[in-house]
């Protein structure tokens, strides 16, 4: 398994771990202290309120409106009638919620961020309002056809066992979860898919155990915590990660340099002839080159941590290592980049793959990228991190002067 896939699985484990802890708390509920139980009763509302404030402050409409849907669901589970008999059928409302919640979570993960109070944000609010009207219409007299579809048994008798979640909602939950996990692992379509994937089983549990008092507070609180963590991670990424390469940026590097102590080596890496590459093929191709190099540098090995320094330059810090110990990893990195061909997309190539590929097309042009690397370590001559960076930069200049595509140490 590649290091990149390991990172994605780890990122998925955090939200799912929060949901797992909620399950443990739910099953240990009877042994919990009375004072703790009283606090948890209102915890979901407090967490949702914090989530509303933070998502509004950062203008994150996906999280904001997901919290809106979950808050409406939580309010209904607390205030729902015990049985049918009024004008509105509570069972139909419950069945509608079970069916719509996973679809909403997938939808808000798919939609691009447009802000909360913008036309795009108001459109999301309109989607929620239309769903509320749909649910009410289905639950009122005259909505029996829709109510019947939502409650219809679609599986053979005994296939799913006895539980309150309507059968049509089960595949919706399962497919939504699978889509979010796939979206996260493949890096396609979805935004913060790992966190939304963690929310789904928590909400399913809250709906599944609707008649058990602790289910609502525990599982809705867990879903709110997951979304709060998503907000914090998103804010961190915007502040510290380079958007193009996904590597920590200059700000993160400066903070890391202040923390360094003891033995360490620092390498400066530069893409050879990058300006010429940009001028010849265009900045959009240059961006793809930076992405490719960044993805390789990220897995440098040897405990090294990569940063985007700026432009076509990158920095790698090796805590606890001297120059001689870091060089083998840098040489391997240089060779990996040099051997990885960069396929230049033809100008006449369609944006989407056609159903029928015509033979005789021009072969794709392969370009080879090389990098020059300079490395230095903390020593009597270079006592501070800034001095080591400057020494590594001098080594980098030496590597370029000596023919490029090489590692030089000072």
UniProtKB/TrEMBL annotation:
InterPro entries the UniProt entry points to:
Diguanylate_Cyclase, GGDEF_dom, Nucleotide_cyclase, Rev_trsase/Diguanyl_cyclase
GO molecular function terms attached to this record: diguanylate cyclase activity
Any Pfam family: GGDEF
Superkingdom as given in the UniProt entry: Bacteria
Question: What residues does the GGDEF domain cover?
Answer: 262-410
Residues passing through the membrane, by range: 32-55, 62-78, 93-111, 123-140, 168-185, 192-209, 215-232
Recorded protein name is GGDEF domain protein
């Amino acid at each position: 398994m590649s290091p990149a896939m390991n990172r994605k699985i780890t990122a998925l484990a955090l939200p799912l771990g929060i949901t797992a802890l909620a399950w443990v708390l739910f099953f240990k509920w009877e042994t919990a202290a009375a004072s703790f139980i009283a606090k948890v009763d209102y915890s979901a509302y407090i967490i949702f309120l914090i989530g509303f404030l933070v998502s509004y402050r950062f203008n994150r409409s996906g999280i904001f409106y997901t919290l809106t849907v979950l808050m409406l669901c939580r309010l209904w589970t607390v205030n729902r009638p015990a049985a049918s008999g009024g004008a509105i059928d509570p069972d139909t409302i419950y069945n509608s919620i079970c069916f719509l919640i996973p679809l909403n979570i997938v939808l808000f993960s798919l939609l691009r961020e447009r802000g909360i109070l913008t036309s795009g944000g108001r459109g999301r609010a309109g989607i929620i309002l239309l769903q509320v009207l749909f649910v009410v219409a289905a639950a009122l007299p005259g909505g029996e056809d829709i109510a019947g579809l939502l409650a219809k048994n679609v599986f053979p008798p005994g296939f799913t066992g006895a539980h309150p979640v309507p059968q049509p909602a089960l595949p919706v939950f399962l497919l939504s979860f699978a889509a979010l996990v796939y979206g996260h692992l493949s890096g396609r379509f979805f935004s913060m898919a790992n966190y939304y994937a963690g929310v789904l089983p928590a909400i399913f549990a809250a709906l599944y155990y609707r008649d058990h008092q602790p289910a609502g507070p525990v599982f809705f609180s867990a879903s709110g915590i997951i979304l709060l963590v998503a907000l914090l991670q998103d804010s961190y990424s915007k502040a510290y990660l380079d958007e193009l390469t996904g590597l920590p940026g200059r700000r993160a590097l400066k903070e890391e340099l202040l923390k360094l102590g003891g033995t360490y080596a620092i390498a400066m890496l530069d893409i050879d002839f990058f300006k010429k590459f940009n001028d010849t093929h265009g900045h959009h191709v240059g961006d793809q080159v930076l992405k490719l190099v960044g993805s390789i540098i990220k897995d440098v090995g040897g405990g090294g941590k990569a940063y985007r320094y700026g432009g076509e330059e990158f920095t790698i810090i090796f805590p606890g290592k001297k120059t001689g110990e870091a060089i083998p990893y840098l040489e391997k990195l240089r060779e990996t980049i040099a051997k990885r061909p960069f396929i230049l997309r033809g100008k006449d190539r369609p944006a989407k793959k056609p159903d029928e590929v015509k033979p005789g097309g021009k072969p794709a042009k392969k370009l080879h990228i090389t990098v020059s690397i300079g490395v230095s370590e903390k020593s009597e001559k270079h006592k501070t991190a800034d001095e080591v960076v400057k020494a590594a930069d001098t080594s980098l200049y030496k590597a370029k002067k000596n023919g490029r595509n090489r590692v030089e140490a000072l």
